Amino acid sequence: MKHVYGWLLLTPAAILLVGFTHYPAAATLVDSFFSTGTAIRPSRFIGFGNYALLAEDPIFWKVLGNNLWFALGTIPTSIALAILMAVWVNDRLPARALVRMAYFTPTVLPMIAVANIWLFFYTPQIGLVDQFRALFGAPSHNWLGDPGTVLACLMVMVIWKEAGFFMIFYLAALQSLPPELEEAAKIEGASRWHFFRRVMFPLLMPTTLFVLVNATINSFKLVDHLFILTKGGPDNASSLLLYYIYQVAFSFFDTAYASTLTVVLLALLAGLALVQFHLVEKRVHYR
Amino acid sequence: MSPAGRRASTLETSAAWLLALLWLAPLLYAFWAAFHPVEYATRFNPLAPVTLANFAKAWTYAPFARHFLNTVMLVTMILAAQLVLCTLAGYAFARFDFAGRDIAFGLVLVQLLIMPEVLIVENYRIMSRLGLVDTLLGIGLPYMASAFGIFLLRQTFKTVPRELEDAARVEGCSVLGVLWRVYVPLARPTYLAYGLVSVSYHWNNFLWPLIVTNTVETRPLTVGLAIFGAPESGVDWGVISAGTLMAVAPLLVAFVLFQRQFMQSFMQAGIK
In whole angstroms, how large is the CA radius of gyration of chain A? Predict the structure, then answer.
């Protein structure tokens, strides 16, 4: 009976999961070995043809590189800020709840709204950044239109959006640290920085690893802002892998190639999941 | 979050406040731009006239009422379906030792990684085959069986003492009766946490709704806002800010009122 009940209870969820996660994942893999069918030429098996195309596609390498730079540019800074925020908010600070709320607020806003607001900061001449620079006589600059600055501008925005989210994990970790540690350090005459570097930071390491992997996974999924701010431009300078998949599938209508790109994305995510799984196993050992 | 830590020094307090101000600044700026005429968009004069005209314009320039209605219906529909499906599946994994359970659970967890927005190409194809393109059901369907929800409820149900279930069984409760009378009431905090995360996620979700909708009748707020806020739409700055604030207002107000609950829920969602 337990078999029957177990499966009966699971069935509704299982149908949807298979239908919209497992089946499409498998179909993506299959499609990546076929050409995109048109009215005249139906789809046919082409083996690794799409993958050969991908290896030669400069835009693919460009967006993959962008993803990498984006992760490198946003994650360490967000984490450093998150630790700083958590340490501050964990202290007995006047108006602590308000400060904590301020840090966390960007997390609850949709990326589209955030991009709408930040767009005006970066607008040439009339935007806030340029107006501020004009006070010092600096010339106006097309921040989002210059391949040299566009990625950095987006990074600043994403750091702002994510640091407060990571903060809550550090806050939880800090609150589980025994208060005796800090008292002992104080008696020993250790400076605050010394205490942080030698005691607190190592103890926060499991949290840091956890946040690091999750942030990396997130960085592959976060593309909403590109629709408002840059459309991946100029010349793909700010495009990311998932955004490129969207363009290939829904602007260029090359679904087979989009599937091939999706397989790469899935492989990257799976690799990260293995790292995460490994870390979780390790964390159990710590305890 | 318990009161902890030492008293902060003046220097650190000022730094913490400064950072908080910096973090609120973009939002405060949006408020400024939305409530003042466009001539004052970058002139921060405390005597600038306050106006609601931007909100009135935004409301007429885009079908906001329709977008609001769509988002509310979408979020409600997804949450209702998630609660039912995840409760049943979570109960199965927590309390029934059925054949293939561990493999099935592993397969469920795959969805934590491969969210529907990664599989946009194939899921769009599936929706067009099902004739669900440009319907609210089409937006919501891929999210209804949520691995995160199943996982969270399984963990919660596992902590319920078996004796309670046995007692209910003796009283003559059926399998679903036990679930409804014993497990569901005890998991109330989990449902609240999950509900907050689900509602905020789908209120803010953009990519998949953008792909699967193409008319005003189905587009949620985020998609409407993206079209409205695009630079080529030629709408002025104050109006865009007003529209943006209207779209985020319900969630923002809820967050300000229940911030502790929000942070705890988001943390659970992150840790999984």
Answer: 24
Convert the pLDDT of each residue in B181-193 to its tens digit: 889 999 998 899 8
* Cα–Cα distance measured from residue B229 to residue B221, given in angstroms and rounded to the nearest whole number: 12
Q: Between chains, do B20 and A103 touch, taking CB under 8 Å as contact?
A: yes
Q: Could you give the domains of chain B?
A: 64-271 (1.10.3720.10)
Which helix (H) or strand (E) is A101 found in, with range? helix A96-108
Q: State the DSSP code for A70.
A: H
Scanning B96-146, the segments in alpha helix (DSSP H) are 101-113, 120-129, 136-144
Check B120 against A165: CB less than 8 A apart.
Answer: no
Which backbone phi and psi does A62 adopt, to 5 degrees?
-60, -50
Contact: A91, B8; criterion CB under 8 Å: yes
CB atoms within 10 A of CB A250: 15
Q: Average pLDDT of chain B?
A: 87
Backbone angles phi, psi at B100, to 5 degrees: 80, 15
Region A94-103: what's the mean pLDDT? 89
Counted across chains A and B, CB pairs separated by less than 8 A come out at 275
Amino acid in the structure at residue A238: S
Question: What ipTM does the predicted assembly reach?
Answer: 0.88
Q: How far is A53 from chain B (nearest CA, A)?
A: 19
Phi, psi of A233 (to 5 degrees): -85, -175
Average pLDDT over residues B169-196: 88
DSSP B8: P
Model confidence, pTM: 0.89
pLDDT category of residue A213 using cuts at 50, 70 and 90:
confident
For residue B4, the distance in angstroms to the closest alpha carbon of chain A comes to 6
Is the backbone of residue B234 left (phi > 0), alpha (psi -120 to 50) or beta?
Answer: left
pLDDT at A284: 45
For chain A, what percent of residues have pLDDT higher than 70?
97
Chain segment A129-154, per-residue pLDDT in tens: 877 888 887 777 888 888 888 999 99
Contact state of A21 with B16 under an 8 Å Cβ cutoff? no
With a cut of 60, say whether residue A285 has pLDDT above it: no
**Cβ contact A112–B225 (<8 Å):** yes
Check: CB of residue A241 under 8 Å from CB of residue A264. Answer: yes
From chain B residues 232-261, the ones with a CB under 8 A of any chain A CB are 237, 240-241, 243-244, 247-248, 251-252, 255-256, 259
Please tell me the distance from the alpha carbon of residue B247 to that of residue A110, in angstroms, as a whole number. Answer: 9
Q: Do A269 and B118 touch (CB under 8 A)?
A: yes
Closest chain A residue to the Cα of B91, Cα to Cα = A9
In this structure, chain A runs to a length of: 287
Question: Would the pLDDT of A277 be above 90?
Answer: no
Continuous segment of H or E residues that includes residue B257: helix B237-257
Domains and CATH numbers, chain A: 57-286 (1.10.3720.10)
